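Deliverable D2.4 — example input (structure tokens):
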């Protein structure tokens, strides 16, 4: 199992290492070169790590010169610089490259024995719950128990052995999970060799089983509970197989993906500060990247690797 690092300095160093392997130093040839793109990315990761906004992380960096030295930042960027850079560095293509780089650093091989897929909803924290409820009551003349009709939704595929997120997509809920299985698994399959995938009943469909087993040669375990309860055998080949030979012991490892969501919400908060739809998508991807970077396994491999020469010297 894994735990997340609580040290801002170590998280900054790990984020800088990931960004250097993925991003160019400068966005264009005529850049002022006061700070590099990897340094800007570290500032964005620290913003999520400290659960603050753009102005807040600038204030923290101004008061923490030792933290800035950890990733070579000599000039503190303006908060508008961070806001504009997030649109460029957290777009879908670059964010996926950063995600792949974070997984590649920790994984010694591309083979994943057991992966799990699931989705969760996040809160739009910039809206007051009381204000939304009071506004709706004026329109409907009654109070409602549901505060939000639409919310940001994050779907991931994770490695059950070390809680690393292999792929992620950002959508808006409420929405069904069946149609999202292929979208989540395709990036992970292109990067890694997955032997077995687990998912809850929300992803139960014959097409998802065929996509995993027939198309990509991945064993899938999904409980056949979609639709009305019945004692009759299912028509689909793989759903009937799940009905007859469902492995409850291996399916118990699906809770590892719930642990990943718990780690993200406890360490980074479950509310998003962004207001617009695309900004919320970028913030969710930044939470995913921060989670991968903050896992202590990355820090162990990068910064706590024992030197064999020194070890041999003390043993002698």
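Example output (designed residues):
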């Amino acid at each position: 199992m894994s735990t997340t690092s609580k040290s801002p300095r170590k998280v900054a160093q790990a984020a800088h290492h990931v960004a250097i392997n993925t991003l160019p130093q400068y966005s264009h040839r005529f850049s002022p070169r006061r700070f590099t793109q990897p340094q800007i990315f570290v500032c964005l990761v620290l913003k999520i790590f400290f659960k603050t906004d753009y102005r807040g992380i600038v204030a923290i960096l101004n008061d923490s010169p030792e933290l800035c030295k950890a990733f070579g930042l000599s000039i503190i960027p303006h908060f508008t610089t961070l806001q504009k850079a997030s649109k460029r560095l957290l777009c879908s293509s670059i964010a996926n490259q950063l995600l792949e780089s974070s997984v590649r650093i920790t994984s010694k091989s591309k083979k994943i024995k057991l992966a799990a897929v699931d989705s969760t909803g996040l809160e739009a924290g910039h809206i007051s719950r009381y204000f939304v409820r009071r506004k709706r009551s004026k329109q409907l003349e009654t109070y409602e128990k549901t505060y939000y009709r639409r919310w940001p939704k994050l779907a991931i595929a994770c490695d059950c052995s070390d809680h690393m997120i292999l792929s992620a997509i950002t959508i808006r809920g409420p929405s069904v999970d069946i149609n999202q299985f292929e979208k989540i698994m395709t990036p992970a399959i292109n990067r890694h060799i997955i032997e077995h995938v687990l998912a809850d009943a929300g992803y139960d469909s014959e097409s998802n089983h065929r996509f995993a087993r027939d198309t990509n040669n991945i064993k899938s375990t999904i409980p056949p509970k979609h639709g009305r309860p019945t004692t009759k055998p299912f028509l689909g080949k793989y759903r009937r197989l799940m009905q007859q030979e469902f492995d409850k012991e291996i399916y118990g490892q699906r809770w590892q993906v719930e642990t990943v969501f718990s780690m993200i919400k406890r360490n980074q908060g479950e509310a998003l500060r962004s207001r617009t739809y695309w900004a919320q998508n970028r913030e969710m991807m930044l939470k995913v990247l921060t989670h991968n970077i903050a896992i202590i396994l990355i820090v162990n491999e990068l910064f706590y690797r024992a030197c064999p020469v020194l070890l041999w010297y003390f043993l002698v």
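The chain has a mean pLDDT of 85.
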